[in-house]
Amino acid sequence: MNEKNDRAAWIKGGNTTCSNPPRTTPDRVWRLVLLGSPGVGKGTQAVLMHERLGPCHLSTGDVFRAAKSLPDGERSPALNEALEYMRLGKLVPDEIVLNVIRERVSCLRCPSGFLLDGFPRTVAQAEALEKLLQKEKLALTAVLNYELPLEEILERLGGRRTCSGCKAVFHMVNLRPRVEGICDFCGAKLFLREDDRPESIRVRMEAYEKSTKPLIDFYKKRGLLVTIVAGKVPEETYQRTMKALGVAAAA
Ligand code: AP5
Fold it and tell me: pTM for the whole thing?
């Protein structure tokens, strides 16, 4: 696996810069939105696409999870509020999410391009992103909409384990770490995300159906939607993604 991008500018916001310079692809800069229900595999695909195509993985969920590990005094009241919504599996209010994005607008200008994962998640967020990109004179390349039957999604969320150090994602069956409970990349312990417990999963799926699914039509109307049926293993989904984007998939 290539060097993991530290994404410091995205995760911390403000004037923070990333330790590794942006990678540019000579012929193409990708600016993609990843859509799909919780657990469909957006984050897993984002890591593969970052390694092979160059765009930075910009996950709003990762920003909130990073805020969780800050000492209490260093979190703004808005972030504390966001964490409580997240713990319950509810969507964080649009205004808080949009402030997080505005504080990180430099990441949208990154010469490596971007993979937005988990944002936008409501029509109001999609409209705000559209305005922001217009102002920056940037355009989305495509919106990738991943699909998978509900029972497989539930199996993925229940088996997911996340690294407490570098936040890499594993699965107890599909993507096992070499040593049980330990991250392959940094050696830290793996944990079950608080919102991967059954009661939060149910709330997240409802929020997806009600608030995020309408984005499929939103982006279809703009001619940007590319639907991909998620595969049995991450590599299969990746190959399908590359085919859908018309890219030769270097393994
Ligand atoms: P977020 O972090 O965005 O979570 P999510 O959308 O629920 O997505 P997940 O991270 O659960 O799933 P994923 O699709 O990335 O799947 P993964 O690749 O890990 O958001 C969390 C919370 O933050 C929200 O609930 C909300 O509260 C808040 N939030 C964030 N953004 C917000 C916004 N814009 N507005 C409002 N609130 C916001 O894969 C899942 C598992 O399956 C893994 O174990 C993986 O190893 C395995 N797997 C992946 N692909 C495959 C495959 N092809 N075959 C087999 N197994 C696979």
Answer: 0.92
